[in-house]
Amino acid sequence: MPGKIRTGKSALLAATVLAALGCSLVVTAPAQAASVATWDKVAQCESGGNWSINTNNGYYGGLQFKQSTWEAYGGTQYAARADLATKQQQILIAEKVLRAAGPGQWSCAGAGGLTNDGIDPYPAPPSGLAPQSGQITSVMINGVGHVFQVTSDGRIRIDDGHYPSGGWDGWKPLDGSLVASLTAAAEGSRVHLFAVMQDGTLRETIGDYSTGSWGGWHTIPGSLVVDMDAVTVAGKIRLYAVLQNGAPRSADLDPVTDAFSTGWYDLTGGNVKQLVGTAVGDTVRLFAVTNDGLLHENDGDYAAGVWSGWNIIDGSQVKKLAAATTTGGTVHLYAATNDGLLHSTDGNAMGSWNGWASRSGSLVDQLDALGSGQNVYLYAHTTDGLTHSQDVYYSNSTWGGWYNL
Length: 405
Description:
405 residues, 5-stranded antiparallel beta sheet, 5 helices
């Protein structure tokens, strides 16, 4: 039987003493805290990761609270018992126990790595992420490039390009507001559009281009984020998010049921401001731009279930990055640097790069790339408020000119 939370005299005494002293158990900057990932490990040991478990053994929920402890630490504000509360609510009460009595209250503390890591699992919402005006994400469905863009007031607009003719339908609004940034992934005739909201939460809506219909927005569970990318690979949509503290995370979404096949899990690394991924077979080549403008790569092989680990690659002063894959598995990176200029480099499956080359374009502050066969379609927003597109034909190494959308 898994270990149970040791919520006897010491934990209850701590709660009583704090109450007697008139101390609030809600601490703005907790001296003791643990990340959601750590609590997940503890719950896996305590209850097999079942946050709704009740086996009538006197312990409840994913972290196996005794009823007396749940009540003493204010759990009943959420639910009568821990197993009836949400995962987040159970963790919030566990945080109170951790601050008051320490990790020794859980017999699974060692197995779960429950220590004073100082990471607030649910930090207060930021004062507000500003909308990334002009930020672009795109998908290709049946030869049509669907381009989504964040407007300066945090709304969404969409334009559809018909390749290879290049005819465009013109910008039109899409339901959504208070958006900070967007990312999208295609699955058959459907597009999954993900929004990082200005309060740091994540939302999703699904557009079905076979019927011309869109579903409503719904919230995706997870910690508050500042950036996200989505890649369809090995039958799943892989989400990559940057937390407010610069840590990268990932989750897998079943595109048919729209259900998470895994919870969020931590990727190693930190100080990240942007994540960009592109699929090569069953592998995602994931690139991180850190706050110092440097580039790093971490390849996830979903067939083998392993990651390569982060490696620094050539590049500096990167403000925005885009990536695309062409037939044969060649990966193309496009970088807008701090001076607004555009550069590109190409990499093979062995991780070798041919060096950065300057490309036409200036004043670039947002960038996206869409691979299709031997072609890549580039989309750029410039500081003068315009949005442009450029077609790159790698079959004959031809770069088309920029034109306004």
